[in-house]
Design brief:
heterodimer; A: mainly alpha; MetI-like fold; 15 helices; B: mainly alpha
């Protein structure tokens, strides 16, 4: 019951954040630039053309009415039409989102699966070489520009060693439609295509490393700090005094409470991850939503830009909601406090 | 003769300096930052080809590898990359100073207000902060840069628009802890004005946390600014921006590697300097939870 109250509060709060996000996006796209129709058509379009586009898009109505239309569209999951191609933004995003989702999901999983053990090792051998190595790794990965790492990986693995593909999701010689979930890794397994699966993994490897290195470093760092924090608690001291062996103490009593900060940081890191996906997708010619977004931005296609920003925001909020729930599962103290507060 | 208080402050500063100089990473960070700032300030006097900052073309010297004449080689129109990297440091540092100069005061004041007054002030400010935190900064910056035309000023605006949130959160949590401390209650009892309590009693206790956060932030602002330029939505050519140089050089990889890898390394080193400095200050001031 307490858990349901906790969950309900988190969902309500997420809805409020999304409402705020819609206001911000609407302000940027409709209020700031002056005339979106003129922007989309460019300086050479005639006044009649601009007016016609204004009417079809409802830009000549009062702002609050436009916002109402925008919001009711959003509530029905309708992001409007692209100003340039007159195609539905929904269709475009639905087409490109799975590639981004696959990339981001693999990155998070990899960063977590590698980052947590690294952090545990650093805390276990604090101030010895594993610790120093992990700390150096965390700092260097945090300050390396994502595009720089991506280019380095491309040169090293693609050109110098020539062991991994550097562009796209699949080779052109291997046509495969991911038409069940849109995720190549899953669809290829459902269809029993081992060759497609292997190629998809090979293509994912470099973009995932480029995107995930910083996040992995952060997760390792926080896991380390959190474990060291927990190890100073009285009950751990007591366990030591009772002669509970090191390994048992670490894995049975310390890991679970120490698990909350890395989870939370993963949620926050997600924001920079989505941002950096734009850079990584561009460099690796990844046919995802970010590539679509960059194109929309250079062509000043406002509805498409609003759609991409909104979907990124929703994605971020949903991931953080999921993480809040996970945190509640891992640490009962938080879900009880969260339900009462 | 010095008064006791002066003597005390002096020995404190000396102690801090001693502890700081004992921390190798902090010293390395400080050295990197100071060197980069000096290079950026003195750029017109120390660079070998100061006129290569603009849209100069020298096709006979294009795509030259690093040599004694051109330490970092030349780009696709024959400009000296070392010169452009030094001037690029300037742009990156200006970006960081302006963004943080706008974002930190806003963030700190909002954090102080929310933390001290509580109630509906806290609710409104912190809810707005949470909403702003839900927008990925680079995505937001891209959207703003797209709607306004891409330029240095607009990049700074776009980044500053979201950056205050982290400072608000930090100062809010510190203020909330300080609000119930005896020295604040004493000031309240003595009838001190709210302004005095906020800025004279609470704010000085936030300074070390702000210093650490600012140093760490400077590195990340530079990274975001570089990513914006890399995507072509930040600073526009011919202004020598490091991110733009990496993007332009990338089309000549891997043969003319120096054109993008050396400016890229410059960004890395600059960000590394601020990060190490921030880490060192964190150990020095003993403010564990600032990230």
């Amino acid at each position: 019951m307490e858990f349901l109250v906790f969950l309900g509060r988190r969902v309500l709060w997420s809805l409020l954040v999304l409402f705020g996000l819609s206001v911000v996006i609407f302000t940027i796209a409709r209020v700031v630039p002056g005339d979106p129709a003129r922007m989309a058509l460019g300086p050479r379009a005639s006044a009649e053309q601009v007016q016609a586009l204004q009417e079809t898009l409802g830009l000549n109505r009062p702002l609050w009415e436009q916002y109402g239309l925008f919001l009711s569209g959003l509530a029905q999951g309708d992001l409007g039409r692209s100003l340039l191609t007159a195609q539905s933004v929904n269709v475009d995003i639905a087409r490109t989102f799975p590639a981004t989702f696959e990339l981001v999901l693999c990155t998070i999983v990899l960063a977590f699966v590698l980052g947590v053990p690294l952090g545990v090792a650093a805390a276990r051998w604090k101030d010895r070489w594993p610790d120093n190595l992990v700390r150096a790794l965390a700092i260097v990965s945090a300050v390396t520009p994502t595009f720089f790492l991506a280019l380095l990986l491309q040169i090293l693995a693609g050109y110098v060693l020539n062991i991994l593909p550097t562009t796209g999701r699949l080779p052109a010689s291997l046509p495969f439609q991911a038409d069940i979930t849109g995720l190549l890794l899953i669809d290829s397994l459902i269809r029993g295509r081992g060759d497609v699966f292997a190629e998809a993994v090979r293509h994912l490897l470099l973009p995932t490393i480029a995107l995930g290195a910083a996040t992995m470093g952060q997760i390792a760092r926080i896991t380390r700090a959190s474990l060291i924090d927990v190890s100073r608690q009285d009950y751990i001291e007591a366990a030591r005094a009772f002669g509970v062996p090191d390994r048992l103490r670490m894995f049975k009593y310390m890991l679970r409470p120490a698990f909350v900060p890395p989870l939370t940081i993963t949620g926050l890191e997600f924001a920079s991850l989505i941002g950096n996906a734009f850079v990584v997708e561009l460099i690796f010619s990844w046919p995802g939503m970010a590539s679509y977004g960059v194109r929309a931005i250079t062509q000043k296609d406002l509805n498409a830009i609003m759609g991409v920003v909104m979907v990124s925001g929703v994605f971020f909020v949903l991931v953080n909601l999921l993480i809040d729930v996970l945190v509640g599962v891992v640490d009962p103290r938080i879900r009880i406090r969260g339900a009462r507060a | 003769m010095r008064t006791d208080a002066e003597q005390h402050a002096l020995s404190n500063a000396w102690q801090n300096w001693f502890r700081f100089s004992r921390n190798p990473t902090a010293v390395i960070g400080a050295v990197i930052v100071v060197v980069c700032v000096l290079l950026a300030i003195l750029a017109p006097y120390i660079t070998p080809y100061p006129d290569h900052v603009g849209a100069v073309v020298d096709f006979r010297n294009r795509h030259q590898p690093p040599s004694a004449a051109h330490w970092f080689g030349t780009d696709n129109v024959g400009r000296d990359i070392f010169t452009r990297v030094i001037f690029g440091l300037r742009i990156s540092l200006i970006l960081a100073v302006v963004v943080l100069g706008v974002a930190i005061p806003i963030g700190v004041i909002l954090g102080l207000l929310a933390g001290y007054f509580g109630g509906w002030v806290e609710t409104v400010i912190m809810r707005i902060t949470d909403i702003a935190l839900a927008i990925p900064p680079l995505v937001m910056a891209l959207a703003v840069a797209a709607v306004l035309s891409p330029s240095l000023v607009n990049s700074m605006l776009a980044i500053a628009l979201l950056w205050w949130t982290w400072h608000t959160r930090l100062i809010y949590s510190i203020t909330r802890q300080l609000r119930t401390q005896e020295f604040v209650e004493a000031a309240e009892t003595l009838g001190a004005s709210r302004r005095h309590i906020l800025f004279r009693e609470i704010l000085p206790n936030c300074v070390s946390a702000i210093a650490v956060k600012t140093s760490l932030d400077a590195g990340f602002v530079i990274l975001i600014g570089a990513a914006l330029s890399f995507l072509g939505l930040g600073i526009q050519p011919p202004t020598p921006d490091l991110g733009t140089m990496v993007a332009q050089g990338a089309s000549f990889l891997p043969d003319y590697w120096w054109q993008s890898l050396l400016p890229g390394s410059a960004i890395l080193i600059l960000a590394l300097g601020f990060n190490l400095l921030g880490d060192g200050l964190r150990d020095l001031f003993d403010v564990e939870d600032v990230r």
